[in-house]
Amino acid sequence: MRVQKELERIPGYEVANHRIDAWWWLVVVVIGFVILLAVRIPDPYWRIIRFVSDGIVVTVGVTLTAFILTLGVGLLAALGRLSKVKLINVITTIYVEIARGIPLLVQLLFWYFAFPSLIQALGRWIQYQPFQRYLANPFAMAILGLTFCYSAYMSEIYRAGIQSIPKGQNEAARSLGMTHGQAMRHIILPQAVRVILPPVGNEFISLLKDSSLVSVVAVADMTRRGREFMAANFIPVETWIMIALLYLIMTLISGRVVAWIERKTQTEER
Amino acid sequence: MNRVPIIHIENLHKHFGETPALNGVDLDIFPGEVVVIIGPSGSGKSTLLRCINRLEDFNSGSIIVDKIPLTTAENINAVRTEIGMVFQSFNLFPHLTVLENITIAQRVVRKRTKEESLEIASTLLNKVGIPEKAHDYPNQLSGGQQQRVAIARALAMNPKIMLFDEPTSALDPEMIQEVLDVMLQLAKEGMTMLVVSHEMGFARAAADRAVLMDEGLIVEEATPDVLFNNPKHERTKIFLSKILH
Lengths: 270, 245
Hints:
The complex is a heterodimer of chains A (270) and B (245).
Chain A: H1 2-9, H2 13-40, H3 42-82, H4 86-101, H5 104-126, H6 129-132, H7 138-163, H8 167-175, H9 180-210, H10 222-233, H11 236-268
Chain B: E1 7-16, E2 19-29, E3 34-38, H1 45-52, E4 60-65, E5 68-69, H2 73-82, E6 83-86, H3 98-108, H4 114-127, H5 143-155, E7 161-165, H6 173-188, E8 192-196, H7 200-206, E9 209-214, E10 217-222, H8 224-229, H9 234-244
Parallel strand pairs in B: 3-8, 3-9, 6-7, 7-8
Antiparallel strand pairs in B: 1-2, 1-4, 4-5, 9-10
């Protein structure tokens, strides 16, 4: 908290703080605009919002679930890429190259349409009943597809963060008798977190936007619900303006939350 | 003096790719001994030190520390808890306070309780003379203070041996003495110490032996007085004339 006081003495601090507030104003203005539309012109805008509201829940749910899984899987992949064990290193490197080299849309189509058929074929081959009857759950496949793809990007962020910590930190920890895992957990990762927080926040926002792609694999997210509404009412302009605004509200809020967390850790940790 | 060496190094070879770093080093360190290693840069002093706790792998030869040969992974962790190391660049953990820097390995590696580790830490902070800095972060400390915390951090593990890799080279001149004083104190208490340093004053005051390394080999070893005043080898004379002007 002493740091906070010192910060306030730096010329220009006020201005910087104001800019942050200005960003929140943008969020308020967009939300206000949406409310204004919904109240002043309830038909069609309020109807659109009501129609896609369950899709909003799906979009947020899919995004959050995939993001939390990505944080874990990405870390494992990063540790794999940094591993001295050749086999683990090669496997994770191949995974990252594949997941980053194929369009996310194609990956989602693969998981939903091709993967279940492959499991069924495998079931017939090894005579295993549950595999033969395997049917894809759209949600599970959407989350699997997003996690598979985004974990690869996330692992690169983790890797860069871990590698940005000076080698001497690991050497000091190891010289005190810590194992590789203990040094990672207590010394390297806590320092890496601050480095990777901004890019991880950006990944979250990208994931939120890319979650609209799951609408092609039978998940009734906001985008899919928008298409359904348009098909039933033939008012594309109003529909897609409203869907776009709803996405914008979510990404703007996410961006502000990320910036807030960032500032909190930067001041707290020193 | 006990004549069973606590560190036994035999015919140690190490190369970085094509570049040779150690070309067959033999060295015995006995319990309670203070040995200072000098030599031109690139002579393999630091590499030798880093091989002793296996921060660096070696290519052939053997190192036995306190009867434990440095071969398998379990041995390496056992050996590292017996050896404290102090680095040229301090390498304090910047995200932890001074006190946490000294307690973390005690709790994680030695499995001590929080209270016990804090007690040991504050005793050691008193010993290195900066108890008032306990709750500061490393970047709020001067270089000399940071290096003294680094020494306390290593001592907290109750090592039998302390390795110092150019502990004063990164310090401003006015801070060198405060670190050397702590090291002198340690030497007086009978700690086994292996020190890479060109601080002649420290070597004369504390060291039992001084060793000159060049091109990955031990060229000459003797008591500090003999080595500094009456060196036998030409290479020792040339090196000393360069650093003593």
